[in-house]
Amino acid sequence: MSGERKVMTALVNLLDFDPEQLIAYCGELGEKPFRAKQLQRWIHQFGVSQFDQMTDLAKSLREKLATRAMIAAPNVISDNTSSDGTRKWLIDVGQGNAVETVFIPEENRGTLCISTQAGCAVNCRFCSTGKQGFNRNLSVSEIIGQLWMAEFELRKTKGIATGPKGERQITNVVMMGMGEPLLNFDPTVAALRLMLDDNAYGLSRRRVTVSTSGVVPMMDKLSQECPVALAVSLHASNDALRDGLIPLNKKYPLSELMAACRRYLEFAPRDFITFEYCMLDGVNDSDEHARELIRLVRDVPCKFNLIPFNPFPESGLKRSANPRIKAFAQVLMDAGIVTTTRKTRGDDIDAACGQLAGEVKDRTRVQERMQKMAEYQKKFGENFGKIVEITQ
Ligand code: SAH
Ligand code: SF4
């Protein structure tokens, strides 16, 4: 067994290559670029991980690849489907760490929420990923491997044939799982390039969203290297408040962030920025905050997405009550800003935002954790873990 493992680690994982790198790798093997495209289609469109199944590649190439390369997504630790159809996978990224991938089916689309880091260094006050601290960056294969695994698992579950003509399950990707994508820039961009490539997932730039807490220089870099839809986690209407919620704000305050949003829009595939705003009871959710926001974003074409806070033990924060969220949204809408409120999904499997953390390390203490959650639920009553539906 250990001998086998040693051989495995020497193999190159083809999920680590973006389209150009795969062409370069095939070049090293003496193959023309179109072979790389064929290979990429087998991997990312057919979901094939065995070289001997890649029937239009020369046998000699298949044999060469089998001795040097592999197609390996990270292992799945658990796979749960919520009563509302949301499906969550817990992905093993080694050394007791895990990240989460969540699929959210809707009538006309299927969105996959993927993680880019194990833990996160930004340490936002309301985020349980941040509370875990930073563990490590995910590799390209760990990031794109979430999409690869999810797409083909979903097809398998539905009995849909693989292959480019197989009905696509994932139509949108959001980088809103664990981690700050722009602090793991190169692997994130490599994964984005695969998502967009016609010989891989072929998603439109408008359907792939990077969410950032506001890493200003990297927003500029993304606009040059791989502009996709951008969501910015705003969460506050002034610097004093945002400093307390998102420590990164001290480095890149709101005036710089707003300027970066305007610059990004010159290159973005969409003509607006999505501002995410986590609704925290008594912290950032008054009408005055809403009015301050309107002034803050007046020069940035944008939409707002209000996220009802998902409480977790020890956060010390509460979710704003539904009528407050509604009133807040109304102030923004009265000023002509398109505002939606996120419906929290998958609460019964802990797949809601900000709850995507800490499970694996805690698995030995599941009982204790459940107890804690139950106590918390009692304390915060009806707002805890409920599906919140607010229609505009
Ligand atoms: N690091 C990136 C992307 C991952 S977080 C970012 O911060 O944008 C995805 C979204 O979930 C962010 O808007 C984040 O602020 C929000 N979020 C984090 N914890 C949350 C919680 N407990 N309740 C509601 N939203 C939360
Ligand atoms: Fe990191 Fe985003 Fe969580 Fe902040 S909200 S700690 S940036 S994952």
Describe the structure.
The termini are far apart. α6 runs parallel beside α7 and α11 packs parallel to α12. The protein is 36% helix and 17% strand. The protein has 392 residues and is α/β, with parallel strands linked by helices. The strands form three sheets. A ten-stranded mixed β-sheet has the order 3-4-5-6-9-10-11-12-13-14. It has a two-stranded parallel ribbon with strand order 1-2. Strands 7-8 form a two-stranded antiparallel ribbon. The site of S-adenosyl-L-homocysteine has 16 residues, from β10 and β12. S-adenosyl-L-homocysteine binds next to β10 and β12.
The quaternary structure here is single chain
How would you name the CATH homologous superfamily of the largest domain? Aldolase class I
Q: List the strand order in the largest sheet.
A: 3-4-5-6-9-10-11-12-13-14
The structural class is alpha/beta
List each distinct ligand once: S-adenosyl-L-homocysteine, iron/sulfur cluster
CATH class of the largest domain: Alpha Beta
Number of strand elements = 14
Q: What does the radius of gyration come to?
A: 22 Å
Please tell me the overall pLDDT. Answer: 88
Separation of the first and last Cα atoms: 58 Å
The percentage of residues in β strands lies in 15-25%
Most strands sheet: 10 strands, mixed
Tell me which CATH architecture of the largest domain applies here. Answer: Alpha-Beta Barrel
How many domains comprise the coordinates?
Answer: 2
- Per CATH, what is the topology of the largest domain? TIM Barrel
Order of helices and strands: HEHHHEEEEEEHEHEHEHEHHEHEHEH
**Number of DSSP helices?**
13
Regions with little confidence, pLDDT below 50 for 5+ residues: 356-392
Helical coverage, percent range: 25-40%
Shape: elongated
